[in-house]
Every structure is written in structure tokens, then in C-alpha cells.
Design a protein that fits this description.
By secondary structure, the protein is mainly β. The chain is about 10% helix and about 50% strand. The chain has a single domain, classed as Porin (Beta Barrel).
């Protein structure tokens, strides 16, 4: 039933969009890094940030709210010449943590092909590439982009990107480092999915390369459709130092990794004051049974699922649209989503219904100006083991420049 709702929503995007005229640049979205790349000038500076208030609600138990400067990010770009550019993104999280989210060199081979190398965003779905707070509704990012495609997901690699303008297509294809699944302890699980396996380019190690790619079609006015994929094996420290003829050690190392085949589909559509978007992930993990037993604790096997799935569909409307052209937008929206970290489990394991969660988020996004937004929403969450939804009120602001 849930998958049927998603497919109907995506079909709705396509059917209504086909009535619109072709405008092959209107729906080519740019994130912060790509905006810097498209800007003239030798040294370019940009940034984004957001602060959040989260208050759990309940009639039986009183809980404190939390306040957090969740992230403040500075981006720097440098143009060496008309073909060669460098971009880096420095993020401060929770005031006290520092991360590098992107750091890559780009070389334009011709108008259709650009070579990139460095710390790259994995092009899965919408949010991992377009995660600036002014680009999505809701204070917090969608839940499927926390565990299945764990935003912000980035690894070191190289590859090609570009646009085939006559076909209104944008493409990306990269060879990258993969998730770490074992470095003395298990990093993947049913509860956290792949999130703790991100290496983030921080003293990362590699035992086998992975391939990722995405194609976006933006040739119909108001519509952007994306198909993405990620394929390869996780990384393990147990491969380091193995003699080439030591088959016992190699077999042990093989038990510490899983194969990942992840597919994604997304769509964004706008018509007058209406804003629609949807996203879907399906990931299959091979060798999960061996991995779970190898990383067992106290005789209890790990609980990484054999497959994971997640989706959401969202509808929004700019209530200022009927009043003509205004410099601000007030978007009211509702998002329905679900993710299941135990979509399927290996033989001999039992599905944990606590990992099967549904969410409803509804709220407002007030775009005060281009690049500045105030947000508030109410989020309802319920796992398959729960009898009622838990509620959280969220509020915050975001900027992007």
C-alpha cells in the first residue's frame, strides 16, 4: 500500500508536468558548491547555516526541549583559469565540531564533460546534494536521508559530471571509497543502517572501490526527475597486512564486509503556487548473514537487514501566490514518509518492527528573502510496535548565500 501511494504520487508529477512547455534550464537545480562554480571571479565565498528548537510533546511525561546551532558552513571557491576550479566546504556542527563536507578539484574538459576529484557528495536522492536549509521544507531533514542514504554522505573519489543540454540531462558518475563496516567492531546495524559507516574523508581506508552515479532530467517546465545508484562493497581493516596465500585470513576478512546495491528515484515539481516532491530508496545488502554472525556480541548476532527501503511524498503550497508577485513566500506543507531498516532479513533472523517507522510532518516555511527562511513544523512518528504517534514540535531558521 505504501509503495502504491509513492508510485501514484510520482505518476501525478509526470502527468501534470507533461502539460507544461519545455524549458530546459528552469529546473536545473544548483547546490551551494555548484553556485560557486557558476560564479565569475577568482576567489568566491558562500555559506549556509541553521539553528533549531526541538520540543517533544506528550500528555504523560514532561520533557525538556533542545536548542542547537545545528550547523554553520562556509564555502570557498577558487578559479585558477577558465577550466580549473577548486571548491571546499567547512562545516561547524553543534558549535564545537568541525568537518570538511566537500573538497574537490574540477577541470572542464568541454561543454559536456567535467572531471572532478577529491571529497565528493554521493549523488543519491535529493537531500544529500541539496541539503541547504532553504532548499527543503521542515526544520529537520527527512528521516530516510539520515539512515539509508546518510546525509551528509561524502567520500573521496573521482569521476565525471556534466550536462547534455539537447536532451536536458545532467549526469554524474564517480568511483569512490565506501562505507567502513569493520575496524575492530561492527559499524553497520539494523538500528543505525549505514550512518556510522561514513568515513567522511577523515583518515579513511579502502579495501575495494565503489561506483555511484545519477541522471537528472529537467526538460519539462516545473519538473525534475532523478535516478541514482550506488554499488560496491564496504571496507574492512582486516584486509590490511594479509599474506596473498593466507586464505583463512582472507575468508575472515570477507566475513567482515557486505555488498551494497542501492537504487534511488526522486521527483520535484512546481506549478504556480504548488510544490510537490517525492523520494524513494531501496538498498540490498549481500553477505549480511555472514557479517551479522562475524560481528556478534556475547553470542548474539548483529541485526543488519538484508534490505532497507524508505520513501516520502510531500505537497506544499505558497499561500501568498494568489496575491500576485511578492518578494516573500509562505509555504504550508505536509509530508508523509516511512522507512524500514528490516524490509527483509537474512534466514534465521526475525524482523524487528521497531525499525519500521512511519512519519507525518506538517508545517510552514516563511521565505523572508531569497536565502533566508523561518521554519516551524509538527512531526508525528510511530513504529510498527507502537500504538500511537509520538509528537515533536520543531522551529528554526536557515540561511544560504
Amino acid at each position: 500500500m505504501d509503495k502504491t501511494v509513492l508510485l501514484i504520487g510520482l505518476l501525478f508529477f509526470v502527468v501534470h508536468a507533461n502539460a507544461q512547455q519545455l524549458d530546459n534550464q528552469e529546473n536545473r537545480f544548483l547546490n551551494s558548491a555548484e553556485k560557486l562554480l557558476a560564479t565569475d571571479g577568482r576567489l568566491i565565498i558562500g555559506g549556509y547555516g541553521e539553528a533549531h528548537f526541538n520540543q517533544p510533546l506528550g500528555s504523560e511525561i514532561r520533557r525538556n526541549g533542545s536548542l542547537d546551532v545545528h550547523r554553520m558552513v562556509m564555502l570557498f571557491g577558487y578559479r585558477f583559469n577558465n577550466r580549473t576550479q577548486f571548491i571546499t566546504e567547512i562545516e561547524y556542527e553543534h558549535v564545537k565540531e568541525v568537518f570538511i563536507e566537500q573538497a574537490f578539484l574540477q577541470y572542464r574538459i568541454n561543454n559536456f564533460i567535467k572531471f572532478r576529484a577529491g571529497l565528493l557528495l554521493i549523488p543519491m536522492g535529493i537531500i544529500n546534494e541539496y541539503h541547504e536549509p532553504t532548499t527543503f521544507n521542515g526544520v529537520e531533514r527527512p528521516l530516510i536521508d539520515k539512515y539509508i542514504a546518510p546525509t551528509t554522505w561524502r567520500e573521496i573519489g573521482f569521476g565525471f559530471t556534466g550536462d547534455v543540454l539537447p536532451a536536458s540531462l545532467k549526469y554524474q558518475v564517480y568511483v569512490v571509497n565506501g562505507f567502513k563496516s569493520y575496524d575492530g567492531s561492527a559499524k553497520l546495524s539494523g538500528k543505525n543502517g549505514f550512518r556510522k559507516g561514513r568515513q567522511k574523508g577523515a583518515e579513511s581506508f579502502i579495501s575495494s572501490p565503489n561506483i555511484t552515479g545519477k541522471v537528472e532530467y529537467y526538460g519539462i517546465r516545473g519538473l525534475n526527475i532523478g535516478l541514482s545508484g550506488y554499488f560496491g562493497k564496504t571496507q574492512s581493516t582486516l584486509y590490511d597486512g594479509i599474506a596473498k596465500g593466507d586464505y583463512a585470513a582472507l575468508s575472515k576478512a570477507d566475513s567482515s564486509v557486505v555488498g551494497i546495491s542501492m537504487l534511488g528515484a526522486d521527483a520535484r515539481y512546481s506549478l504556480k503556487g504548488m510544490r510537490l516532491r517525492g523520494q524513494y530508496y531501496l538498498s540490498h545488502q549481500s553477505n549480511a548473514r555472514q557479517y551479522n554472525y562475524f560481528t556478534s556480541k556475547g553470542g548474539t548476532p548483529n541485526d543488519l537487514g538484508d534490505s532497507m527501503t524508505g520513501y516520502y511524498v510531500e505537497a506544499g503550497y505558497n499561500v501568498f501566490y494568489p496575491f500576485g508577485k511578492m518578494k516573500t513566500e509562505l509555504i504550508t506543507f505536509v509530508r508523509y514518509g516511512a522507512y524500514n531498516m528490516h524490509n527483509s532479513v537474512v534466514a534465521g533472523s526475525t524482523k524487528n518492527d521497531a525499525y519500521n517507522t512511519k512519519s507525518i510532518t506538517t508545517g510552514l516555511s516563511w521565505n523572508l528573502a531569497r536565502g533566508a527562511v523561518l521554519k516551524a513544523d509538527l512531526q508525528f512518528l510511530k513504529s510498527a510496535t507502537g500504538s500511537k504517534y509520538s509528537k515533536v514540535f520543531n522551529a528554526g531558521f536557515g540561511v544560504m548565500f
